[in-house]
Every structure is written in structure tokens, then in C-alpha cells.
Amino acid sequence: MTTLFGPGFWTRNETLVAIVIIAFCALATFSDPLFLSATTLTDLLRASIVLGILAIGAMLVLISGGIDVSFTAIAVFAMYATTVLTLGTVPGLPWPLIFLASIAIGAALGALNGLFIAGFGLPTLIVTLGTLSVFRGFLLTFVGSERISKLPPEMRGFSRTMLARGTTEGGSFYALPLAFAALVLVVVLTWFILHRTVLGRSIFAIGGSVESARRIGIDVRGTQFFVYVYVGALAGLAGIIHGSLGRMADPFSLVGLELSVIAAVVLGGARLTGGYGTITGTLLGVALIVLVENSLIVIGVPSTWQSVVIGLLILLGTGLPAWQAKRTAERAA
Amino acid sequence: MTAEPFVRIQGVVKRYGGVVALDGVDVAIRPGEAVCLAGENGSGKSTLIKILAGVEQPSEGSIHIDGTLRRRLDPGTSAAAGVMVIYQDFSLFPNLTVAENIAFASELGAGHRFVDTKRMKARARAALERIDVDIPIDVRVESLPVAHKQLVAICRALAADARLIIMDEPTTALTEREVGHLLGIIRRLKEDGVAVLFVSHKLAEVLEVCETVFVLRNGSLVAEGPASGFDAASLTRHMTGRDVPQTPPSAVDATAGTLLEVRDLHKRGAFENIDFTLAAGEVLGISGLLGSGRTSLAKALFGLVRPDGGSVELAGESLPPGDPLAATRAGIGYVPEDRLTEGLFLTQSIVRNVAVGRLDAHARRGGFLDLMGLGAEAADWLTRLKVKAPDIQAPVSSLSGGNQQRVALARWLSRAPRVLILNGPSVGVDVGSKADIHAIVRDLAREGIGVIVISDDLPELLAVCHRILVMRNGRLVDDIASGQVDERELGHRLASSA
């Protein structure tokens, strides 16, 4: 309900990130005029799909006042298990059903998180740190540890389906995969839940003050359970897309990405303490991380500096609002 | 008012294991009536509130709401029946807007699944109109001043069709002017047929707005009746079971000498041109409305806040600015306003919270502590300040507000300070503890210690301070000798412009 372009516009995270993105693109275009092209855009958009879907899920958890680091393990588990199952039982399964299976597995794993966090009331970071290891270990031990490059034909077909394709004037080829529509769908659905349903507002309320939420009769446990199941489902979707687009089911991939995802969410304005987070901000954060990870080389910065740049951005992104909050608090005293 | 009572509790007993928290209490509240529940910590008033709110079940007795016997109340059915509690923390969502905070509970209650922004805003506006208050409904609650947050909490209860609003210590965080405004709103609520149960330590306000007073002591109802039949003294006597003297402080020994001299202390955005002296054995009050800079000044004297310029001299020696450690070593003590977040280590034991002030005194060679000596001295101070604690190894968070304040005081007193700064010493403290703290302050003054009391509790200022300085917008605007004014005059001078 609070307006985007209201007072404090210039100091909001979203604005600052947008400015950095624009500055970055300007620098890149200056170094290489070919940077600003449909090819770059579609490449960056493609790179944002998996990160974006995972980030939206992570944002939801942060808003609810918790933190989930197990979603990458859920993503790769769902992806790999689905691939193995499909190849072993119904290799010709149409891709929407394959995707549904991955989402379902992700949701089930998320439900396990929900059981420990909402059901037993255990701290979220500890639980998800644990399940991160358990899910991954379980995957590698009991499901398989082979990299599968011969994917089900439907998955291959999906990865080749394009939303838009063509050739630029410069002669380079660009293509935006259908998978991008999944990100758009996730954004729209999540926006609707967060802003138009009581369930979504309850997530904000719990993040703002869980005790007050209990007092006015919000079903705190039910809402938290929903959050972790939803994140799991999103992770399942992100995982299967990752597998399809990468043309390989690699059980060793994705895990390790958690920090980039959370970095994107935090850059976008979500607070680790809960109650705050916007979809716009998260998407901007994802865009910035993707830009940095894919285009530093264009400016002439070696890609080994990626983590340094991202780290600095995180420090600034979290330090700035924290310092501002401190100043406002001091002034009020 | 001869209407049927909206809430009637009869013979309510509550036992927690072997402890009897309430021993057969009868209370009746009529529609539109303002009732005060007075009692010290441990008197049972929190238990009574919890039973009315459905958070606890009575061991015996009956509760009738709106003429119907309620066999088993829970927070949901209690709220549905129209009984709502506004706790001291207001239970708001800082990250949501005013409109959402006001309308959320009702949206939930109505079983809506989807959010209708227009409907929520309309509900919010309607509630604000009922108490004739104008707050922007699209701002986040966290950006509101405390008094406005309280109004939002009241509106939330109204939007949910409250028929009885229970306010737990509503005036603790408010200034004098805001309290007046709140009392006016309570009168409007009454006119609207909403009953109010007011739980407060501030007796003067209570007597001003309530029609009926119930006094609890040790779980029993020891007095009840129309407010007109009580005054502050009789209320205190019923609540504590003893007479608490309201003697004004004795005159300061003029030959005692200056202890603290503050010259031209200033800090941009907080205070400026601060000049005053504190004599040995003097109790100096500093008061002012919220935002007057009094807390910044107090912190600057102790070094928690670094002033831009000016000097603070203790017994002729200049104190380095912005250095609380130096201030402590020189003999200044500071008991902060918010003991929960600034003063005490809540999860640590009671005895450790006192002992931490004397670590350097009990340090032996090689950095080892004489734990026995440390513990014994701390325990001794706890006894001296009459801290009621069954187990001093228990975490200090288990104590009542009044006892917690005594612990905070004990820590500083054990260091034998020459100047003690008390910021809001009796905020959230029951009447009995408050009187004890005042007695302690008077004793300190008699021993030659200089005390600065930051407060806007008028009776407190008059009871302990020799002189009262008034701050407004960062400047000292008035210097009042407490013996020469009464409460009304003091309140007037505090609120009037320079």
C-alpha cells in the first residue's frame, strides 16, 4: 500500500540498485558498444530465470521473518529425481507433467522444512542448514551421482522452445527461451498472493511481529508452513528449468548458489529481520547480480573479481539502510 | 448508570500450582463505564486481565459477558464477544500501514480471503473518526510517534467492534500533553458506549477519568467504589497496605559546594546553551516534553553522546567528552530510561547484573576475579535495596519492573558514585517500589551525593527534587524551586511556551 514513488524515493534500496544497474550498463556499453543489444539482453534474461525464481521464494521466507538456505538442495534434488524417474519409467512424458512432478517433489521437501519450523517451532536457519546437507546427501547417496546428459526428449524440446528469436542488425543471433515465461508467471502469482490475499498480508504481519500476529488470531503455524512449501515448489520449478536449459542433469550443480540468491534479495531491500521485501527490489537485485556475474569482463574487470564486487555491493546494500535507520533513531531520541 | 453490567466476574479464583494469584474477586463493568484497576506488581491485576482476555482460565468462579455465562473463553471468543486488550507494546505491525493495522483483525474475523484495499481503508477511516483523530492511513506504523501508535491500537479495537477495551499501563510512554489527549479520547469512547478498563500506576490520571475504582492487593479485592471516594493517598494505602509519606525534600545544605558544573554544553540538533550547577546533596530534576533534548543531555553528561562543545566539570575536574568509561571512573553513574534494552542484561542472573558494576574492584592479580567476594557484595546490595527475588541466580528478566529498577540502581550504587543520573527512574514501576526508590534518592542526597532526575512525572519531581530545570527544544527555559510550586503550577510551567 505504501507508494513506490513517495517520499524517500532516492534512498530506497530499489532506486539505488537501479542506479547502479544503469551505471554498470553505461560503463559496459562505453567499453563495448555492442553490449547494448538484443543478444546481451536475452542472454541476461536467460541467466536470470533460475536465479529469479529462487530469489522470489527466498524473499518470501525473509518477509516471513525466517531464512531458508536449503532451496538449492531442494531444487537439484527435485530436478535430478524427476529426471531419473522420467527416464526410468515414462521417458516420453510431456514436459508440463515433468515440470509438475519436479514442483511436487520440491513442495514435499519444503513441507519437511515446514514440519520442523512451523510444526516443532525450531529456528529456521538451523533447520534449513540441516536439510540443505541432508537433502543433498540423500540425493547423491540414494538417487544417484552421475551426470546425465541424455535428458528425456520432452525436456530437450522445452529448452529449444523460444519465446522470441531472431538476428540483430549486427548479425548476432538472439533467442529468449520459453522458460522466461515461468519467471513471469511466478512473479505475477507471488505478487497476487502477497498483496491481494489475507494469507500474503499475514506473511508480512508475522515478519513484522510474530507475537502481535498470534494475538490477533493469525494462524502463524499454517502460514509459515505454506511459506516453506511454496519455496520448495518454486525451487522444484527452478531446478527442472535449470536442468532443461543446461541440457544436463548434474546432481552437483546449484548448491552453493544460495548466497548469491540471498544477496540478490537483500540488495533488493528485503531485511534479514523480516517484514520487508518487494518483488521489484528482488528482481532488481537479481538483475544486478546477473549483470555482475556475466558482464564484468566487458568492462575489463577479470571475472575472478566477481565475488569481491558482489561482496562490496552487499556491504553497501545492507550497510546503507542500516546506517540510515540508526540516524533516524538517534534523531528521534 | 443503572444498566446491566457488560462484564461481570464473580468469585474468580486463579491458582498456579500452590500460588493463589486471585482469591475470589468480583468485578462488574457497565457499558460505557470507565473502570480503574489499581494494584502493585504481584497483586493479580495481570492475571485478571489474562482471564478476561481468555488467555488464562479461572480455577473457580464465573464470567458473564453481555449477560451470557462464558464457560470457556479463549482469545478468539473473548475478542468476538467484544473484549479487547491493548498491551503495553500495542501489538502492532511496524512494517504495515495504519489502515492495515486497524483493519487486519476485522478482516481475519470476517473470514475474508482476499484483501480489499478500499474496504480496509474505509474501516480504518471510520474507526479514526469515532475518536475524532486525524492520522494518515497510508504510512507505516513504525514511522509514527508513540502516542499515535497507541491511537492506532485503540482504533484497531474499535474497528473490531470492541465493547470493552482493556488498557494495560497506557500512559507509561506518553508525555503530559499526550496523556491529556488520551483521557479525552477515553471520554469519547465512554460516550460511544464503549467501556474502558484502565490499569495504571499513575493514580492522578486514573482518578480523573474513571468512575469506579477496584483495588487489588495480593490477589484480593481490598477496596472498590466510586473514584470520588478515593484520593492518591488512600489509593496508595490500599494498594500497598502501608502509608507512603509524601514529604517534600529537605532544603539543600548551602555550604555543601558545587559538585557538577556544566558550561555552554551544546550539540547540534539536540541541545544548546546548557549551563547549570549541581550542588553536593542536591536532587536536580530535568523535565520537558518529548523531543526537548533532555535524554540527549543526560547521555551527554555521562559521555554516551558526544557534545559538540562546552564543558562538564566534576568537583573542579574537567571530564573528557564522549567517554562513559572516564565518567564512570570519575564517579558518575547513569541509570538509563529503558532498563530492558539499555540497562540490564536480561538473560543474566540478578546477582550478576549487580556484580558487573564492581568487576574492577574484585580483580586479583593475573586478571582473575574474586567471585566469592563479588557475589557476596552484590547480594548485600540486593538486600539493602530490598529486591524481592526468591532466587538471585534467576535471570533478571523474571523480576517485576520495580524490582528490575532496584537491580539497576544497586549496580550503580555499589560503585559509590558522586553524581547519579536517573533517567525515568519510576517508569513502569509499581507504587510501592516507586516510593522506595524515592526514599533511596533522598538518602543519597543526605549522604552528599548529587542526583539528577530526568522525569516528566510531576508528583515524582515534586517529591524528590530540590530544583527542577525545564527544557524546551534543546534549551533550558525555566528553573523552578520545587518547594514553591504545586503540581498544577508545575504542569502549567512545563507546558507553556518559553
Structure characteristics:
heterodimer, A: 333 residues, mainly alpha, two-stranded antiparallel ribbon, 2 strands, B: alpha/beta, Rossmann fold, 2 domains, 20 strands
Entry summary:
By secondary structure, chain A is mainly alpha-helical.
Write the layout of secondary structure elements.
The complex is a heterodimer of chains A (333) and B (498).
Chain A: H1 13-31, H2 38-63, H3 71-88, H4 95-119, H5 124-143, H6 153-160, E1 162-167, E2 173-177, H7 179-196, H8 198-208, H9 210-215, H10 220-245, H11 258-267, H12 279-299, H13 306-332
Antiparallel strand pairs in A: 1-2
Helix pairs in contact in A: 1-12, 2-7, 2-10, 2-11, 2-12, 3-4, 3-5, 3-10, 4-5, 4-10, 6-10, 7-8, 8-10, 11-12, 11-13
Chain B: E1 7-16, E2 19-29, E3 34-39, H1 45-53, E4 60-65, E5 68-69, H2 75-80, E6 83-86, H3 98-109, H4 117-130, H5 146-159, E7 164-168, H6 176-191, E8 195-199, H7 203-209, E9 212-217, E10 220-226, H8 232-240, E11 258-267, E12 271-279, E13 283-288, H9 294-302, E14 309-314, E15 317-318, H10 324-330, E16 332-335, H11 339-343, H12 350-355, H13 371-384, H14 401-413, E17 419-423, H15 431-446, E18 450-454, H16 458-464, E19 467-472, E20 475-481, H17 487-495
Helix pairs in contact in B: 3-4, 3-5, 4-5
